[in-house]
Design brief:
Length: 548
């Protein structure tokens, strides 16, 4: 029987892309005056020229629409993607969000030292727990030049006030180094697909960051397959079917639906099933419309309210932490959880011997097939502190190494550490963590959030899981609903996003929980519009026209 640990649960969150809530006090934080961050009326830097890195042929083919390449077995012959050690022996300071536990120091951490050796630099790594990220970034953004790390990970789910202005003022303009064919000096960075750069976006027409590419599916409902099958789950189900199955799967102290604080009872999955816009939609004439003003969004809230009245949600759905929700899912107390799609990388191995997870297909509403959430194709991005040309080139070489693709020796080292020390090989040749590797790893020391190669579907030793996920993607990628604002700049949004999001999210949670009526949501939507929502729509329309 598999056992659970907090380490296991936290690393499940790390690859899932869980959302964070930024404290409202940050809206008062100022990083000083910046330039015009809008791209409207600017000469736009060409995106880096995409050149796919050489790698092993996938067992399951990708599609242009966004279905990922799948590998049912680990490559037998790894290639080398970096010809020489990129560093010069100097020390670099880096900072990143983390979803793991604090790592052991470099002197005691063989994984840390192994990556340092491969990179040819000494690394001072500041890791920020997800819950502290917004506050720490506020301090960094307000600090002086000397306190700024060389490499900073900006976590996409954290809406940092005046983020673009801070970057424009304090970060290196990477356009001369990466735009167009210039990126070919860094082959692994050139292997980052254009969709990731696009969803990261430009600032003032320029390229300031390196995106962390992510799959097309976003927020995903993971089910306990057996419990939902026993309750009558169907491949093609309606909203009524979903509600009936959820009610049947809720028995005694076991609940069909789990949710974590800040997830709005898993609202993203349900609004997508109702085909409501995810964030923003844009008309053919370039007019932007907010998803929260769409009647389908409101209908999803009403549907979730009924699910809650039916007793299908865990009673602590508004207060459970994400790690605690993972515990309840893996021990069978709740039969589902919403998480980022990437959570499969740890959820499937961690649930072995406990349950079989499965990604839910969207239900239909009034005969109309439902959609899924299309993720921002950049989980976050990396910026560099302003420095001399030679220093920037060094830092880019470091990031190029970290962005090595699946099937390379560099990827294996960064993701699994040293063979015989941090991992051994299973019967199929795939890496399997040792006890040391369960402590010293890429989750607790998150090099993956500085740079990473394109994502592929792979679960060590679980080929059936890869086949199932690939098949699911083939069904749902065509109905993914993309937020039209991805990659666009809105000064009002960067200044007011935290406050406006809190206004809407708190109201949605209150309505579903039964503390407020649906009319309260209408009032919140009106306030949202008057406090900046309508202005954001105008700014996005200008940006969209400039980027089209």
């Amino acid at each position: 029987m598999s056992t659970l640990s907090r380490r296991t649960l936290l690393r499940s969150i790390a690859v899932g892309g869980a959302a964070v809530t930024v404290p409202g006090l940050l809206t008062a934080c100022s990083t000083g005056s910046g330039g015009d961050v809008s791209n409207a009326g600017k000469k736009l830097a060409p995106w880096p020229t995409y050149q796919a890195a050489a790698g092993p042929k996938p067992d399951l083919a990708p599609t242009d629409q966004g279905v990922q390449a799948g590998y049912i077995s680990y490559p037998a012959d790894l290639t080398t993607s970096v010809a020489r050690t990129p560093g010069d022996g100097s020390t670099i300071r880096v900072m990143s969000v983390t979803f793991g536990v604090p790592p052991k120091g470099s002197a005691e951490n063989q994984y840390w030292r192994a990556v340092e050796k491969a990179l040819g630099v000494k690394i001072e790594f500041t890791v920020i727990p997800q819950g502290d990220y917004a506050q720490k970034m506020a301090t960094v953004m307000a600090g002086d030049e000397d306190s700024l790390p060389d490499i900073i990970n900006l976590f996409a789910s954290a809406k940092l006030p005046r983020e673009a202005e801070f970057i424009q003022r304090r970060a290196e303009d990477l356009t001369p180094f990466l735009s167009g064919d210039a990126v070919k000096d860094y082959p692994n960075l050139a292997g980052i697909p254009t969709h990731a750069w696009r969803d990261m976006g430009r600032i003032g027409g320029k390229i300031y960051g390196i995106p962390l590419e992510r799959p097309l599916p976003g927020s995903t409902l993971y089910l306990n397959q057996q419990k939902f099958a026993d309750a009558g789950m169907k491949d093609s189900w309606s909203a009524e079917d979903f509600a009936a199955v959820a009610k049947q799967a809720t028995q005694g102290k076991t609940y069909a639906l789990g949710a974590a604080v800040g997830s709005l009872f898993g609202n993203a999955v349900h609004t997508a099933a109702h085909n409501a816009p995810q964030g923003w939609r844009v008309d053919k004439d370039g007019t932007f419309h907010a998803g929260i003003l769409d009647e389908r969004f409101k209908a999803a809230i009403a549907f979730q309210s009924q699910l809650r009245k039916d007793g299908s949600y865990h009673p602590d759905a508004t207060s459970l932490s994400t790690p605690d929700l993972n515990t309840l899912f893996l021990n069978g107390t709740v039969a589902s959880q919403q998480n980022g799609f990437g959570a499969y990388q740890t959820l499937y191995p961690d649930s072995k011997g406990l349950l079989t997870p499965v990604t839910a297909l969207p239900y239909s509403v009034d005969g109309t097939p439902g959609g899924i959430v299309a993720a921002r194709r950049a989980f976050g991005y990396t910026i560099l502190k302003k420095a001399k040309k030679e220093r920037i080139e060094l830092l880019l070489r470091i990031l190029d190494y970290l962005a090595a693709p699946f099937g390379t020796k560099e990827w294996e080292l960064v993701h699994y550490g040293l063979e015989g020390t941090h991992f051994t090989r299973g019967k199929d040749g795939s890496p399997q963590y040792t006890k040391l590797g369960e402590v010293e790893n890429i989750t607790n020391l998150p090099f993956r959030y500085l740079a990473e190669g394109p994502q592929v579907l792979f679960v060590p030793g679980m080929p059936d899981a890869v086949r199932a996920l690939h098949s699911w993607q083939q069904k749902v990628v065509p109905v993914a609903i993309r937020d039209a604002s991805f990659g666009l700049q809105s000064p009002t949004n960067t200044a007011q996003a935290a406050t406006l999001s809190a206004l809407v999210n708190d109201t949605v949670t209150s309505v579903i929980a039964g503390r407020s009526s649906l009319s309260k949501f209408d009032e919140a939507a009106k306030q949202w519009r008057s406090r900046g929502g309508d202005k954001i729509a105008e700014e996005y329309a200008e940006e969209y026209a400039a980027n089209s």
